[in-house]
From TrEMBL:
The keyword Hydrolase applies. Keywords: Hydrolase. The keyword Secreted does not apply. Signal peptide: none annotated. This is NUDIX hydrolase. Pfam families: NUDIX. InterPro entries: Nudix_hydrolase, NUDIX_hydrolase-like_dom_sf, NUDIX_hydrolase_CS, NUDIX_hydrolase_dom. Its cofactor is Mg(2+). It comes from the Bacteria. Residues 28-156 form the Nudix hydrolase domain. SUPFAM superfamilies: Nudix. GO terms for molecular function: hydrolase activity. Belongs to the Nudix hydrolase family.
Amino acid sequence: MAGPVPPAEVECITLHGQRRRYPAHQVRFRPAVYGVAVEGGRVLLGRSAFTGRLDIPGGAVEPWESLEQALRREFREETGVEPEPLELFHFTENFFAFFDHPFHSLRFYFLVRVPAGATFTPQRSEVTEIRWVDLAAAPEEAFAPGDREILFKAVERAGRGS
């Protein structure tokens, strides 16, 4: 009995929210990890240099890295601060295109702690600013699709203690 036949094309969401189809043979796996710091009900976010939206610090896991190693590296690169990973609290899977490269994305979200009173330094090539954000005061369109719900989940989870 033959296995499933791969599709000829895969639909991906672009950085700007459009849907585009790519040949299935071009799609690559991209595990990624993100760190959500919560303080007083606010979350630490960066403003993406690519989209202008508020973004969760994090990014791709290199083939030789563990999730925790990648989390520490990506968070430190984007914020200038070393995070303390607390717990994996969420996972998503989707298909997206980043600068016309299609990916099957596996995203791991961790609660993290940052040093009290830390000074943040954004990675200018990717992040224009880093700041604490009150989710209730930020409009939904300020976030990438789905991120706001993940952030509310992080705030709720952090409120229960980790």
